[in-house]
Amino acid sequence: MGLGSIRRRDRIICWADPEHGSGFKFVQSFLTFLVALPTLLTVFSISATLEIAGRHRGGRGLLGWIGALPWNEPMVLAVGLSLVMLGLGGFGGLINMSYAMNSMIHNSSWVTAHFHLIFGGAAVIMYFAIAYEMWPRITGKPLRSKRLACWQLWLWFWGMLITTIPWHIAGLMGQPRRIAIFDYNIPLVARTAALVITSVIGGLVLLIAATLLIIILVRSHLGERALTQPLRYALAVNPPQQVPAALNGFALWNAVLLAVMVVTYGYPIGQFFFLKSHSVPAVQVTSQESASMGAR
Amino acid sequence: MARDRGPFKLDNPWPRFAWWSTAGLLAISLILGFIVLGREQQNGPTLGTWAAICRALGVTADVGPAGEPQPPLRTPSRIAWTSATLTQIGAGNAEHGAFVALNCTACHGEKGVSQAGLYPTLAGMDGIAIYKQLDDFRASKRSWGAMNAIAQALSAQDSADVGAYFASRTNGLPPFVGERFQAGHTLREDNPAVRLVFAGDPARGIPPCAACHGPGDHKLGAPQLKTQQPAYIERQLAAFAQGFRQNDINEQMRTIAAQLTPDEMRVVAEFYGTGAAVAQVAGR
Lengths: 296, 284
What we know:
The structure holds two protein chains of two kinds. Among the domains of chain A are: 70-230, no CATH class; 245-276, no CATH class. Helix content of chain A is 66%, strand content 1%. Chain A contains twelve helices and two strands. Chain A has helices spanning 3-11, 22-33, 36-56, 64-68, 74-97, 102-105, 109-139, 146-172, 187-190, 193-221, 251-270, 286-295, and strands at 15-16, 20-21. A two-stranded antiparallel ribbon of chain A has the order 1-2. The longest helix of chain A has 31 residues, at 109-139. Chain A is globular, with a radius of gyration of 25 Å. Mean pLDDT of chain A is 84; it is low at 1-13 and 287-296. Among the domains of chain B are: 83-168, Cytochrome Bc1 Complex, Chain D, domain 2; 192-274, Cytochrome c-like domain (Cytochrome Bc1 Complex, Chain D, domain 2), CATH 1.10.760.10. In chain B, helix 1 (13-40) packs across helix 2 (49-57), helix 4 (94-100) crosses helix 8 (156-168) and helix 6 (127-138) crosses helix 7. Chains A and B meet through strand 2, helix 2, helix 11 and helix 12 of A and helix 1, helix 2 and helix 3 of B.
């Protein structure tokens, strides 16, 4: 996009980011903000689960239950670390969803840092824990070392923080995303060099952690086949007596979701089919090319 | 109990709550986004409700360019690469072209091989490039005293013929066909000429010269540069950079040349002209 179109965009303030009218942008912002509600419910239920388990194991006092949890179990450790990364990434997410603050970090490295922290951190570390849980049950060969698995999770956690925290800051300093080459001779770009190098070091830690994952799984796979204990599911402290039909299936919620999608995205996507301001003139390339071949 | 009925039965309170709360949230956000936000935005006058709704939809009367004074429209060239133009060039008669080319020998050298840095070698040059430059001279899209007068004396068919004649000569510039791209040159290339010709400089938005002018690749209308007079190439780069020459259709040569330092223009011209990488540019 050239300078000219930026100036033009500046004048036409009714357009918001992805060529949506500002009204739809606001509606989408508002509804995205509501994602905070189920996220907080998730954080609450996971924290409460951990607390109840900690107190059952003899944890006392305001924070004593945290120490009483079995942190040398990969699954427990992963849940705890994932929760921390979800919290950090979630606060960043509040800025991404905001109607006004988004314009400050839009299209900057902040966004790439955010989704690496949320997905690569909070989600992927759970995949690792699931692998440690499921791999032995699939192959019948137990994990050789839970200690090493915990090391791997800690390395991934710290690697992800070292990678993404400076990355967020570089974005705030104006580093754009989707750029292949930065010329660090330019003073404005040179300021971000130390942050980028820190990020790269974090990336190396992540690489070590990823390699360790493979080593752990392969080592266990080469071991003796031994029957592991059967999979046990957690029991609810207050078992449900009866589940309302609406909460026992996705049908109602899929219908609600479809209605919300049509209201919020129906017009913004439909407009591309009839608004003239979005049309791009067609340029025939192939016929010219073949004509030039014929001329030769 | 009613709440155990199907999730779409409206006497079940759960779907009633789901639909009403969703509708309520949508209504609140629509009112805020389409009426309040549009009316009260600080960077413009307060709008009426209808105008606010139109603006929030993106349907406004002010989407056209504002009434700022626009510079007069200027086309860089009359030539467009339509199939009609290309057919005419392709039908050039080299025998008649040889006769027309008798006019060129005084400056462009006997048999079209220039002996002076001021004039380009024409022998071997792509006929399409010659045709375009002649038309640009004829229409005063490119200025060079004698050439404007000479081109005005030629018809479009003469231009095509003389282009076909010079393109058929084998004593001058090597043809695009058969040249191979020199792979393996990267942005870390030490020699600035080799770097610019084969890798460009993405940080300054400069594509590799070879992508259009060869060796190894070719874009319609771009002349090959290998063994061209180096002083001529350097002079044209300077003319593009300073805006004296403006007949590059998409302004690409003006954009690129304005980014080059005088030293870079010299080494690139020398590299193409002599086929060898010469003196390094100090400091780069």
